[in-house]
Amino acid sequence: MIPRYLVDFNLSELPVVDTDVIVIGTGIAGLFSAIKASEKHRVIVITKKALMESNTRYAQGGIAAVISEEDSPEYHRQDTLMAGAGLCSSASVDILVNEGPEGVKELITLGTAFDEENGELALTREGAHSHRRILHANGDATGYEIVRALSEQAAGHPNIEIWNEHFVIDLITEDNECIGVLVQRPDGQRIFVRGLATILCSGGAGQLYRYTTNPDVATGDGVAMAYRAGAVIRDLEFIQFHPTSLCYPGAPRFLISEAVRGEGAVLRNIKGERFMDKYHELQELAPRDIVARAIVHEMEETKSSFVYLDITHEAPETIKHRFPTIHDTCIGYGLDMTTDWIPVAPAAHYMMGGVRTGLHGETSVHRLFACGEVSSTGVHGANRLASNSLSEAVVFGRRIIERIQQMPPLTRTGEGIKCLTERHDAVMQPIVERRLKLQKVMVRQVGLRRSEEGLTKGLEELRRQLPIFKAALHTREQWEYANMLTCALLLTESALAREESRGGHYRVDYPQRDDEGWRKHILQQREKGMLEEMSDDA
To answer: Which class is domain 425-511?
Structure first.
């Protein structure tokens, strides 16, 4: 069994730092929540790397919100529910589509410069959206612009402390109440940070897979530490593989935004044949899971490791203006998207499930909240609608702070809490080798297409790594690996349990969606194991 804590400690022997709100992570969810909390509270923001390093930074396409008079919250709601394949929370989706526009206005107030056309906010369309409602910045650098603006606000705020290069090892709880976090400083010293409320904004788990659009920091830390603390984890089997990441020798799996297809790019197989009309009526603008599986099928049919994305029919000036980051990155590898077809293949991109929350981001552990990709608010269901993630972070970040402002003072001190298990110093296989082995298991057995045979084999291989939890872990790399292993086990177990295909979860042995038997969520909780919960998608 996965232990309650990753390391041994005795809080009474550790230095204590008191604050009001602890924020873990510096993507859009963490920074926006910190800024909102700082209006009335002292805030400590903790990031294991640098302030600007997060998944948000690499988000290209944009942020979805109803801005146009031709659009409406009801249209946005319908699109989100359709993509979510029967597992969205209708209440959460209603909140997103109705409160999203106000969240965008707040981002603008905080300094985010979205692109404009003729004096109005520029809007584009992405896959499975019925209307143009995607705001973007600097063409295809939306996430970077948002993080830039929010970082500047947070860094200069008198009520916000930012701790770079600090690692949160575990959440500290007493009687199902989170009273703070155990942190390792850059110099190796461990401290107890105690707070009125803790907000997990630690992002996703793309590093579970060898091919991912996520940065190195996306190791599933938040889900793993919340699971150890007793929080309920929901829908972890639903992993979104982005259909189009750059697949070229010497280049990283760089994201080629869905907005490129939104602006007219088409997919071609290695023979040059356009193929999406065989798979879905929306062709290149079909939901991501359908496009990703279609690409894999074409790759297998043509015995190729990639397909092509072709936008050469558009004017070169238009492409360079709309997608400057993608264009310049491709040029750096000798590819010119104005004249060349770009080789692409699917890569792990987004985790639809996560720590289950209520409508104000509250988890099943008191005083613990979750926001952004680490959370499962119910907005995304089985398949996230493009560009809803940044909106979700802002909308639910605001609601979390509203709830925190109503909370009573913290009365527990943490006195007497300790974990003394006498872990042994084992001679371990290098973590880099263990990590690569885990990633290979996930790609082969728990990737885009799954089966009982593959999932069972993958689970057996992952379980062989469980003895690491009995070892004394001392470094960030070791803790990250332990968190990755925790997430990989939970994901594989839930994927094995769900005997159907829906959204980001596809089983070749159960290829059909089964609403009668499986229109429900899989929950996982450390003490209670696997549970189920009916979907309230209306």
So the answer is: mainly alpha
